[in-house]
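Reminder to self: tokens first, then the designed residues, so the page reads top to bottom the way the pipeline ran.
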């Protein structure tokens, strides 16, 4: 899988509560352990879904068909994410569990990462599509590593920024968190539309 194929998949994986949760955890009381636990949980669940789809051999077809299938799955996932983001744009209150992130524990953070990245509908579909694609290409399951690692890198970015920039990032990140919380749907829609165009071009090209 090329970088241009992986990037839209990663966007689908992190767009919405996934990245917002990573930012909230980076501003929590025990942010280092919470952020690490969140990323570990996410990495475990993504890897399990990819490996399960690979083991089941779903989508084992020829290369041309598999490329088209992967693009179609990404297209459906992006459309689902776009509609879901728009429909929930006017929700007055964040999900109940998001209110716990400020005082989260590593155990809670691990469980959240595992559930969000492994069983959120678009994430489940995307990770399964990656496993199926590798089967169809007769590629080893380890070839999913770039997809998994790039997804985890994006989720770890808020805490990595804190490590790199220290107090300046610690002062700025709550502002970014609040802005993202108020305007996340707009940011997500813009990013999703961009990658939707890329996916359509790949599908029709």
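Designed residues (205 positions):
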């Amino acid at each position: 899988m090329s970088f241009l194929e992986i990037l839209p998949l990663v966007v689908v994986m992190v767009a919405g509560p996934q990245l917002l949760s990573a930012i909230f955890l980076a501003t929590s009381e025990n942010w280092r352990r919470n952020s690490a636990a969140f990323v570990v949980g996410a990495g475990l669940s993504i890897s399990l879904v990819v490996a399960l789809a690979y083991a089941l051999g779903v989508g084992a077809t020829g290369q041309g068909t598999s490329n088209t299938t992967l693009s179609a799955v990404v297209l459906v996932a992006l459309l689902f994410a776009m509609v879901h983001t728009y429909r929930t744009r006017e929700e007055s209150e964040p999900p109940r569990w998001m209110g716990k992130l400020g005082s989260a524990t590593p155990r809670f953070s691990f469980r959240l990462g595992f559930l969000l990245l492994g069983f959120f509908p678009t994430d489940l579909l995307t990770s399964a599509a990656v496993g199926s694609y590798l089967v169809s290409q007769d590629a080893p399951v380890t070839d999913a590593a770039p997809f998994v690692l790039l997804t985890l890198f994006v989720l770890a970015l808020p805490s990595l920024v804190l490590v790199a920039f220290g107090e300046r990032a610690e002062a700025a990140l709550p502002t970014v968190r609040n802005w993202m919380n108020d305007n996340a749907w707009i940011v997500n829609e813009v990013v999703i539309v961009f990658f939707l165009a890329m996916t359509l071009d790949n599908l029709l090209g």
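The chain has a mean pLDDT of 79.
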